[in-house]
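re the bet — no i am not wrong, look at it urself. input seq straight from the record:
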Amino acid sequence: MSEERFIELATKYLSQETSKEETASLYSYLEKDEYYALFNCIKEKWNEKSESNEQPSFNVEKSLRTLESKIRKVEPTFTFSKPERTANRFRINPMILRIAATVLIMVSVAGGYLYYTHFSKAKVDETIWQEKTTALGEKAIIMLLDGSIVTLNADSKFRYPQHFEGRQREVFLEGEAFFEVSKDSAKPFIVHSNNLATTVLGTKFNIKAFAGDENIEVSLVEGKVKVSNVNAVGNEDIIILKPNQQFVYYKEAAISSVEVFEPQKETGWIENNLKYDDEPLSKIFVELERTYGVKFVLADKSAGNKKLTVNFKNDSFRTVSEVIKKLTGLNYKTTKENNRITKITFYKK
């Protein structure tokens, strides 16, 4: 994999020109930290241009001046000069050379490609929908063509268009996901989950809307969102959330409330950090099963009413099982299929 190819794919992705194969190829690059960081750099510059309603472009001379300024923070005496004189005048840290080479590649490849696409971009007339489904114990990161990033939790389904057409960016969620939405004031981003619609312009928020759960929760981390609910008589209730506010919709009663929430508790699942405050064991087991892809079973259903306060920080399911054993006084046994643990059963000693 080459940096030139990565930058070509990144710029095509941001200008909504990638095919399925190219999008998949870009995702494979982004599994590496260095490419993920470079993509965020390109996306940030791209979004700056988008907000000013300019066609994304790169000015080589300006880019070199900007790069020179950044490098001087590390090497105060650094200055760009003609190649034949560089070796005699400067000693540059290899890491700086790597940064410089990366930026220069980005300027040349991305600049040429954007010039071409500015004149040859074809309009997509028909919406092509993509769908990502995660199994128990599986998470997925989905990068949308507008630069937004969706982290999909286990046992969830996310449906989205390959290209956003019209005046809105609409997607559909069943399960749980954390959204980092690229700002576009002219094209709101709308997430449909059950009978709720969450509308944003650019922000970070979490939606939890599993079919089997009693509630649907929209938790705002950053920015501002509008949550609308079409009730039983066809009227629309609209709530505007501020950071650290959570909209909770109670399905059975068909009522809602706005509460303050703890960000780590609602979004910790992204890094397998699970926090529970006086939660029933039966509810905890549902989330542990999603996270680890291993069935957590209670032989005695009455034990499901036991409430625990516990914080798991990216622990293995074996560690989690031992902690639960210690806190509840229950014992457990494991069941294997094809030499893999598939079920953990807790029972009274």
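see?? The two ends are 56 Å apart (CA to CA). told u. also Residues 94-120 form the longest helix (27 residues). so pay up
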